[in-house]
Amino acid sequence: MEKGGERITDHEKQHWQVHEGEPHHRSSKLKILLKTFDKQRIGLILGPLLFVLIVLMPEPQSMVDAAILKDVPDKSPQIALGTLLWVLTWWVSECVPLGIAALVPPLVFAISMPDRLTWKTLLGAFTDPIIWIFMAGFVLAAAFRKWDLDRRIAIRLGSLYKGTNPMVAALFVAAIPVFILTLTGSITASTAVVFPFLVAYLSMANVKPGGKYSEACMLVLAQAATAGAMLLLISTPPNLIAKSTAAQYEYDITFLDWLIVGTPHAIAGLLISWFVVFKVVKPEEKSIAADRSKLVAVAKQLGRMSRGEKTVAGLLVMAVSMWMFPSVVKVLATYNPSLTDLSVTLTKVMPEAMPAVLIIIFAGLIRIKGEPLLKWDEIARGIDWNVVFLFGGGIALGIGLEASGFAQWMATGVSDALGDDPGIWAIYAVSCLLGFALTYAASNTAAALITCPIAASLALGAGVSPIAPIVGAALACSISSAIPSTTPPMAIVYSSGYVKIWTMFKVGIVSDLARVAVLILIGLPLITFVYD
Fold it and tell me: DSSP characters for 178-195?
């Protein structure tokens, strides 16, 4: 199962499912009925059926007008809408691997608009330079796991707090370690690393698994991982989708740009969710004290930092430095014009894909005690190829929605609903809300692939810069946390048995709405500060 572009194991998925021994599964007839009409079977048929029904409908004049503006066949916007619903249905129902569903847009658009979109153009989306940033993030996460650097970081951070305040202890033991580890580029791997350490900590503090405090700590862990997704450009797929969408309209989102915009939202999300969890769950514990000697013993088991750990840490520092360097020079060039030529050269020679390629090369070439930092099969297994195909297909879908006139038709309809002069605030808010709402039906990756191009079209239709709506929509896609299926961290903590679904829902709704409000209130000024 895939959510947010990252793996959830079958073992984790089984924890969510209703067991056959429960009362409403005792009827054999009901079992057969459920098996016949399960979500995946329905989705497999419903997707192409919706496509056919949409295409066979008479063309609305508004869609014909949009097609004329793009100089494409009158049916093109309808075909694009049908393709969108087809792919979205398959993504939501998970009836086929997400990467397979992502191959539908190139197939449909290349056949329906051969004069406008060629196979070369559409399949070229699967080799977009941004995909290499994805792969580098997967490789970094695999290196952290192999050499236990992620575990060392989690234990060190969790040992910092020596007080007895339960709420503060949860911040240091559950929230901050996973929040920092999301810098490795995987919120799922970060949660998987901190989870067993948190369980061990609760045991050392004599906290029972079924209590409210253990439930609150698990929710803090998952919420912090979700908030960490906003930190870096590589932290989660929607961030890179925003960069890709902006590039189609000749706007560049650099690593430093995202750091400036994303970090305040990530920190705000961390603190809001931590506060909301304890106010909603209301644990009974007034004080907590773990056996510090056991924490020290666990840290001693790791020993001194190995050469492999140091090398992996150096690789991360190198990559982040190279990602930021062109942006820093670009900022300095605004104060020192003599650096302008250097800035232009660095932008061409050192795009974000360049350090990403170096990470993969060095991971395979650098040897520690005669062994590569990562063997080739470890690199290949570490890369989530389903996500690579998903992202490539998403880029192709965005290209098709724009070229067909569908995005223009959608933007015109929303603009008409907003009034003659909606303004950037209204467009930005609508983009954020659209991205946020879609993540309850689909993965955050799929939601961003759909929302970001629509946000851009809304802005361009109103005659304003699309950069703020694009970034806002992408950030909103990383907020939802009210149900286990929204993000892998929520699924992991729910599958543990520590968290009740109703508690997760209550905490998630309050936290999500507060974070969306913050995104709408401070997001636009932050983005305007960076791009004005």
Answer: HHHHGGGS-HHHHHHHHH
Q: Please provide the distance, in angstroms rounded to a whole number, between the alpha carbons at the two ends of the chain.
A: 41
- Return the closest-CA partner of residue 442 out of 498, 405, 480, 475: 480
Helix axes 501-531, 488-495, angle to 10 degrees: 160
DSSP, collapsed to helix, strand or coil, labels residue 341 as helix
Give the β-pairing of 2-3 and 6-7.
antiparallel
pLDDT in tens, 478-517: 898 887 766 778 877 876 778 888 888 899 999 999 999 9
- Please check whether residue 188 is in contact with residue 387, taking contact to mean a CB–CB distance below 8 angstroms: no
Instruction: State the helix-helix crossing angle for 467-476 and 444-461, rounded to 10 degrees.
Output: 160
Q: Distances from the Cα of 95 to the Cαs of 1, 258, 396, 490, in angstroms?
A: 10, 34, 21, 22
Structure tokens belonging to residue 357: 């390629």
CA-wise closest residue to 8 among 202, 189, 198: 189
Residue 25, Cβ neighbours under 10 Å: how many? Answer: 13
How many CA atoms within 13 Å lie on the side-chain side of 371?
Answer: 11
β-pair partners for 371: 368
Q: Which residues pair with 372 in a beta bridge?
A: 367
Across 371-396, average pLDDT? 85
Nearest-angstrom CA–CA distance, 51 and 70: 21
User: What are the C-alpha distances in Å from 141 to residues 134, 226, 382, 451, 487?
Assistant: 11, 17, 8, 28, 18
The answer to whether the beta carbons of residues 21 and 405 sit under 8 Å apart is: no
Residues paired with 367 in a beta bridge:
372
Amino acid identity, residue 532? D
Q: Write out the H or E segment, with its range, that includes residue 460.
A: helix 444-461
The backbone region for 287, taken as left when phi is positive above 0, alpha when psi lies in -120 to 50, beta otherwise, is beta
* CA triple 355-189-138, angle to 5 deg: 25
CA distance 360 to 376: 10
Residues in Cβ contact with 90 at an 8 Å cutoff, skipping those fewer than 6 apart: 43, 44, 47, 96, 98, 101, 104
The pTM for the full model equals: 0.65
HEC-encoded secondary structure of 477-499: CCCCCCCCCCCHHHHHHHHCCCC
Residue 247's contacts (CB-CB under 8 Å, 6 or more residues apart) are 253
Alpha carbons 118 and 116: distance in angstroms, whole number: 7
Identify the CA nearest to 474 among candidates 1, 5, 93: 5
Distance of CA 292 to the CA centre of its chain: 36
Render pLDDT for 420-439 as a digit per residue (tens, 0 to 9).
677 889 899 999 998 898 77
